[in-house]
Description:
This protein is an alpha+beta fold. The chain folds into three domains: 12-48, no CATH class; 60-70 and 184-273, TATA-Binding Protein (2-Layer Sandwich), CATH 3.30.310; 76-180, 2-Layer Sandwich (TATA-Binding Protein). Helix content is 28%, strand content 30%. It is built from six helices and 14 strands. The strands form four sheets. Strands 3, 4, 11, 12, 13 and 14 form a six-stranded mixed sheet that branches. A four-stranded antiparallel sheet has the order 6-7-8-10, covered by helices on one side. Strands 1-2 form a two-stranded parallel ribbon. β7 and β8 form a beta hairpin. It is elongated.
Amino acid sequence: ALTVHKSMSYKWNEIYFNVETGGGKTNETYFKWIYTGLIRATQKVSLINYEPISPFCKLTINPSVPKIDKGKELFYVADKKADLSTSNKTISEKFNFPDTENQSSLLQLFQFVENKIAQNGLSINLLNHPNYQELYEINGSSGENATFSVYYNNKGQFKMPNLMKSTPKEFGEELINLLKSENQISDFTFIQSNWRKSAYEQLNQKLKSKEIGFSYIIQVPYKDTIQLNNGKETLVAELYYDGGGFFTSIIATSCTTIEFWDEIQIIFNQMKEN
């Protein structure tokens, strides 16, 4: 038996490699040590004390019972504490978001709407910002066009959307139904970092096995606000992450039943272990 350091001058066809050091496993020093040990073998490596590292391995689940919310009186509720001025600068400039105390709330609404419509091949063409009202012009893939409005207040609360005009009429009606529905995300290319995109794709596969999916993911620095649904029940949670590629905690803020939150906790615990 040799330490990795003492074995650096040797090669073997097969090695048994104890990868437990007693220290941290999510740093550059550990990965360099692992790589150095692995390349001592030319054909086969058997790992001892191996435990997988995933973006969820550091996750702490806050089991507190969230607010039980049966109804859906509001279209969306923004996080007033979040600052999106830097992370959403390109979108802010493209659509001339006003530099007011509500800018972050309006940018979160933009992400929410984009999550809703992107799965159906729709796009946001124009956006106007009258006082306490957002006017969205949406284009369809075959030349359809519709405008809807959403009123809001200084608390970050957005009322249900209202159709203003549409060509053809049926397109606008279908758009409003889509915005109000509990649809599910299938494409995660909008996620702003590769490791989180990959992690959400893995998590989505686990959720799909239970017929659960993402309604939306609102991204702010070091926190994603997610909504999950199974067609009947919904849950909103804040999923925090660090700068090293790991989710650190999840806190549920509202759900329709406590049983649904229990089911979600089981799935996240499984992601931690895998």
